[in-house]
């Protein structure tokens, strides 16, 4: 499952212990997994060099993770990479892949000689007197490394950055995929574009088709907004005729079939149009009940009424609760059958 190196010994990790550790053991490498891991590992070397080419030589590796699924590369940089910079890095890495650069590997060479070759050492790593150098073009990528690599960059096939972001101050992280994973990524993107094209009836210019759809959607939204305003005006005029005067206070308590946003807007419209207004709206949706209480400012000040206190009492009839400000409050409950009693209970506040 894994290997570790300790006291110059290689330790192999297995999912279970051997029944008899004295017997010979046959250890086999998972070829597919190893190949994909090598693709991703070699890609980090090409990526590191590309970042230094595109962003500047201040870029240094600060961590990495490679497996058979993807690669992760942490590096020093002072700003978020732009889309143009990401594209340039991808383009350079893929160009080096297509060059099919043959791996040049130097094993057990003196570290001084490795430095003379221009080899880059990894962050925080401790190296012995003899090191291993991985070279993909002496003028492009020369690094000290002990990992598994491709024999030639062409094996990597394709490279695609899937994310770039900050992980600490001055430290960025790139995650990327290669080979079959990258191919599947682009195939999925192509399938998505095909589906979008079909939904738009396959226009010759897909971008123009999307823009046209956005414009149509914007126009429909405008029309809906206009109709909403008209409906609100009509409802306001209708409910004005239903207002009752009780002890000098204009009272309106009705059951409405409106969404919460329209209820709120209508309540404000009526409050502006009708002085001394004591308003209660009730509605039912999906087996749930809701209440809204709106009070004119002068009722709050002169009659010591508080919408939040009133709504809490009314909410008991619908087996719910609520609250709000002195002039407007809302409540919800699970008993729509209690709505008529809640509306009648509101009237009692004016009879006192």
Judged by helices, strands and strand pairing, the structural class is: alpha+beta
Beta fraction = 25-35%
- Gyration radius, to the nearest Å? 35 Å
| The CATH architecture of the largest domain | 2-Layer Sandwich
State the shape: elongated
Helix coverage percent of residues? 40-55%
H-E string: EEHEEHEHEEEEHHEEHEEHHEEH
Indicate the low-confidence ranges by residue numbers: none
Count of discrete structural domains:
3
Biggest β-sheet strands, sense, barrel: 6 strands, mixed
Provide structural commentary.
By secondary structure, the protein is α+β, with helices and mostly antiparallel strands. It has three domains: 32-197, Threonyl-tRNA Synthetase, Chain A, domain 2; 201-240; 242-351, Roll (Diaminopimelate Epimerase, Chain A, domain 1). Helix content is 41%, strand content 27%. It has nine helices and 15 strands. The chain has helices spanning 31-54, 83-98, 111-116, 179-199, 206-240, 260-273, 297-302, 307-315, 339-351; strands at 2-6, 9-13, 61-66, 71-76, 104-110, 130-136, 141-144, 159-168, 171-178, 244-246, 249-255, 277-285, 288-295, 320-324, 328-333. The strands form four sheets. Strands 10-11-12-13-15-14 form a six-stranded mixed beta sheet, with helices on both faces. Strand 1 and strand 2 (9-13) form a beta hairpin. Helix 1 (31-54) packs across helix 2 and helix 5 packs across helix 6. The longest helix is centred in the middle third of the chain and has 35 residues, at 206-240. The protein is elongated.
């Amino acid at each position: 499952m894994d290997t570790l190196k300790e006291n110059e010994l290689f330790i192999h990790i297995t999912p279970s212990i051997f029944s008899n550790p004295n017997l010979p053991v046959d250890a086999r490498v998972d070829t597919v997994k190893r190949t994909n891991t090598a693709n991703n590992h070699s890609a980090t070397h090409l990526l590191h060099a590309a970042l230094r080419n595109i962003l500047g030589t201040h870029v240094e590796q600060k961590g990495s993770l490679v497996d058979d699924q993807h690669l992760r590369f942490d590096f020093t940089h002072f700003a978020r990479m732009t889309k143009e910079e990401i594209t340039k890095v991808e383009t350079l890495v893929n160009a080096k892949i297509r060059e099919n650069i043959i791996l040049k590997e130097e094993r057990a060479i003196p570290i001084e000689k490795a430095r003379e070759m221009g080899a880059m050492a990894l962050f925080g790593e401790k190296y012995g007197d003899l090191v291993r150098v991985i070279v993909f073009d002496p003028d492009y990528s020369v690094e000290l490394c002990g990992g598994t690599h491709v024999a030639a960059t062409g094996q990597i096939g394709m490279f695609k950055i899937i994310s770039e972001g900050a992980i600490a101050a001055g430290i960025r992280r790139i995650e990327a995929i290669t080979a079959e994973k990258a191919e599947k990524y682009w195939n999925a993107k192509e399938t998505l574009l095909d589906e979008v094209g079909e939904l738009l009836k396959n226009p010759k210019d897909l971008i123009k088709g999307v823009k046209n759809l956005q414009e149509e959607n914007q126009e429909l939204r405008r029309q809906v907004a206009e109709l909403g305003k008209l409906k609100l005006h009509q409802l306001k005029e209708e409910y004005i005729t239903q207002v009752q005067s009780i002890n000098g206070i204009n009272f309106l308590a009705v059951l409405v079939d409106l969404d919460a946003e329209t209820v709120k807007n209508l309540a404000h419209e009526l409050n502006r149009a009708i002085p001394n207004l004591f308003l209660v709206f009730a509605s039912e949706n999906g087996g749930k009940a809701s209440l809204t209480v709106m009070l004119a400012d002068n009722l709050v000040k002169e009659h010591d009424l508080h919408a939040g206190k009133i709504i809490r009492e009314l909410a008991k009839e619908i087996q719910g609760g609520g609250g709000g400000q002195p002039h407007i409050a809302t409540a919800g409950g699970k008993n729509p059958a209690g709505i008529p009693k809640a509306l009648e209970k509101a009237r009692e506040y004016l009879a006192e």
